[in-house]
Amino acid sequence: MDAGGDGGEQLELTLGPLYHVVVDDRVSGSLTGRPARGYRSPPQELDAARCLAALLLDRSGELVGDGPWRRPLAGGQRHVAIVLAAPGQLGG
Which of 29, 37, 47, 63 is 20 to 30 A from residue 14's alpha carbon, by CA? Predict the structure, then answer.
């Protein structure tokens, strides 16, 4: 069997752009007793990123606009944004 021949089929996977969900919990340390926190998700497709962002914002349904979005937290606010991942990064 010729591994370099043209007769075989090869699976081709085309990935669209991938995105990170970036979370920044901005809180008052004197009120909450804890520092501000941040999170950056692994690269993922836009639909998955929007779903995660809605979950982190405690919202049901579609997010309106392009973000960033905010939600109140005890002693501060949560800021959530969806940003384009650098080319060449794979989701997973």
Answer: 63
Distance separating alpha carbons of residues 1 and 6, to the nearest angstrom? 11
pTM: 0.73
What pLDDT does 66 receive? 81
Provide the residue range defining the domain that includes 80: 19-84
Q: Is residue 33 part of a domain?
A: yes
Q: Are 19 and 82 in contact (CB under 8 A)?
A: yes
Tokens of 53: 């962002």
Can the peptide bond before residue 72 be classed as cis, meaning omega within 30 degrees of 0?
no
What is the CB neighbour count within 10 angstroms for residue 13?
4
